[in-house]
Design brief:
The chain is α/β, with parallel strands linked by helices. It folds into 3 domains: about 1-65 and about 235-315 and about 435-475, 3-Layer(bba) Sandwich (FAD/NAD(P)-binding domain); about 85-125 and about 225-235 and about 320-415, Polyamine Oxidase, Chain A, domain 2 (Alpha-Beta Complex), CATH 3.90.660.10; about 130-225, Orthogonal Bundle (Guanine Nucleotide Dissociation Inhibitor, domain 1). Helix content is about 35%, strand content about 25%. The strands form 4 sheets. Strands 1, 2, 10, 11, 12, 13, 14 and 20 form an 8-stranded mixed β-sheet that branches. The chain has a 7-stranded mixed β-sheet with strand order 8-7-16-17-18-15-19. Strands 5-9-6 form a 3-stranded antiparallel β-sheet, covered by helices on one side. A hairpin with an 8-residue loop joins strand 17 (about 355) and strand 18 (about 365-375). Mean pLDDT is about 95; it is low at about 1-5. The protein binds flavin-adenine dinucleotide.
């Protein structure tokens, strides 16, 4: 057992040392900025197409917003839970890659237990979305919900079809999702269910989102609903598998891109090492930036990026997340009698946000409840001392399950996600002309990253597929 642990520690050391040692090349075909999911997925596709690439990442690790924390206590089993992203919906192009890389996956229903009008409605084990909704809604509410679904279904199909979208759909970008749902005259509990489900996804109030983009987010609840995939052992297993596939020697860590100087047929990239402060130049045929758009202003562009691109970036918004890992004893009576584990995940619009099972694959005495606290609650907590946040979380648990807060052993916070998810306010949409402008390469620069395409990691993977296709047709003359 001890030997096994030593070998595992050694393997991890060698793996990360090899990453740290990757040399910056003087020249490459495609320089990818950022080793989050978008950067790694772009490299994955370029490797398949046989196009040379190199990644530079400002931080000392790969993964970006994907983070899996391991908790080590002497004499106890190491626990793990994600402090960044949690799950992938079925339509996310990531799922295909997860399967190609043969990662172990846990597949769950799109429906979740939900706190509706302060009452927890628990999704039964193996209960279908349809049966769940029939149970929690009255017949009148369910009929109204069905006709709402029948209305948005074809709209979503059209949104996923060829673009540009027809005018009547595009007009929906000029009205807030909240207002549009209100206009449908749905029973209160149905519109509340829609609000909570969408707000938990987008990390912001539904007043802040254009109806067109809000309707698009609703795709996971149509028909039987989309399955949700989680990587057993944590999402960093995915970023590590991607790193291994694309070759760690093609990723340089601790390298900050500071300046992009575009020439006629090439681009010169200035890169500042965060440890040695050496500033070096790389020459490439093209650059893919996966830096979240709101951080692009940290770079110099020579010549400058077009005004339209800047306008698209400045008029975008975002949703915020705040994460907490709550440690409870699985064996405690309260945890058992509240049937807490069976109810997870739970959607709430309280200080608890979405309550996930943080370590679903570990049968340990200690259970981690991973709270994805969203929107207003996340913003409020970001300004608050953590001891106060802990009290408020305990009090929210008391409201959900009286007596439960006594089961909380400790809490760890991950408060650094003020701009976790891309958003489009009233007047803007991911489907409008300005967003399209972002996807047109300029001066050998290709903008990717979740903020260029859609919310969540599906935006990251869609953007990677787009830039990979653009580059394949550029560098291989459209032969592939
Ligand atoms: C708490 C949380 C929970 C989430 N949950 C989910 C979920 O359940 N499902 C889902 O689908 N999505 C979820 N998301 C969103 C998902 O994590 C992101 O959409 C996705 O990880 C974005 O990947 P990316 O590569 O586009 O961006 P990032 O992961 O942000 O990667 C960009 C990279 O660029 C690097 N960089 C920045 N500037 C420079 C520079 N100048 N030079 C070099 N490198 C630079 C950054 O360090 C970073 O590594 C969640 C996000 C958060 C924060």
């Amino acid at each position: 057992m001890v030997l096994k642990l030593v070998f595992r520690a050694l393997a991890i050391f060698v793996y990360f040392s090899s990453l740290a040692l990757a040399q910056l090349p003087q020249k490459t075909d495609v320089l990818i900025i950022g080793a989050g999911l978008s950067g790694l997925a772009t490299a994955y596709q370029l490797k398949k197409a046989g196009i040379p690439y190199h990644l530079v990442e400002i931080t000392p690790r790969v993964g970006g917003r994907v983070r899996t924390v391991t908790y080590q206590t002497p004499g106890q089993v190491t626990l793990h839970a994600d402090s960044g992203m949690e799950e992938y919906w079925e339509s996310n192009p990531a799922v295909k890659i997860l399967k190609e890389l043969k990662l172990p996956l846990k597949v769950e229903s799109s429906a979740s237990s939900v706190v509706l009008n302060q009452k927890l409605e628990t999704l039964g084990q193996k209960e279908s979305v349809e049966d769940f909704l029939t149970r929690i809604f009255t017949p009148v509410e369910k009929a109204a919900f069905d006709s709402f679904r029948a209305q948005v279904g074809p709209m979503i199909q059209r949104i996923n079809g060829p673009h540009p979208l027809p005018k009547e759909l595009m007009n929906l970008k000029d009205i807030a999702l909240s207002e549009w749902v209100l206009q449908q005259n749905l029973p209160k509990r149905v519109s509340e269910w829609i609000r909570i489900s969408v707000e938990c996804e987008i990390g912001t109030q539904w007043e802040q989102l254009s109806a067109l983009d809000g309707i698009s987010e609703f795709h996971i609840f149509l028909g039987k609903g989309e399955a949700s995939y989680r990587v057993i052992g944590g999402n960093e297993r995915f970023t590590q598998a991607l790193t291994k596939y694309i070759n760690p020697h093609r990723i340089s860590l601790n390298e900050r891109v500071t300046r992009l100087e575009s020439k006629k047929s090439r681009i010169i990239i200035s890169v500042l090492n965060q440890v040695t402060h050496q500033n070096r130049k790389i020459e490439a045929k093209a650059v893919v930036s996966t830096i979240p758009l709101y951080r692009l202003s940290e770079l110099q562009f020579d010549p400058p990026l077009s005004e339209k691109k800047w306008e698209a970036i400045k008029t975008q918004t975002w949703g915020s997340y705040f994460k907490a890992h709550v440690f409870v004893s699985r064996k405690s009576d309260r945890f058992q009698t509240k049937k807490a584990a069976e109810a997870l995940p739970i959607l709430s619009d309280s200080d608890l946000g979405v309550i996930y099972d943080g370590n679903p694959d570990q049968n340990t005495d200690t259970k981690i409840l991973s709270l994805l606290i969203t929107g207003y609650h996340a913003e409020k907590f970001t300004m608050m001392p953590l001891d106060e946040v802990k009290k408020q979380i305990a009090s929210a648990f008391e409201q959900l399950w009286p007596g439960f807060s006594k089961d909380i052993q400790s809490v760890e916070f991950y408060r650094y996600h003020p701009r976790a998810i891309a958003g489009w306010p009233v007047g803007r949409s991911r489907f409008d002309e300005l967003s399209n402008e972002l996807r047109i390469p300029e001066n050998h620069i290709y903008l990717a990253g979740d903020f260029t395409e859609g919310t969540h990691s599906s935006g990251a993977f869609k953007s990677a597929t787009r830039v990979a296709q653009q580059l394949i047709s550029l560098l291989k003359g459209g032969r592939r």
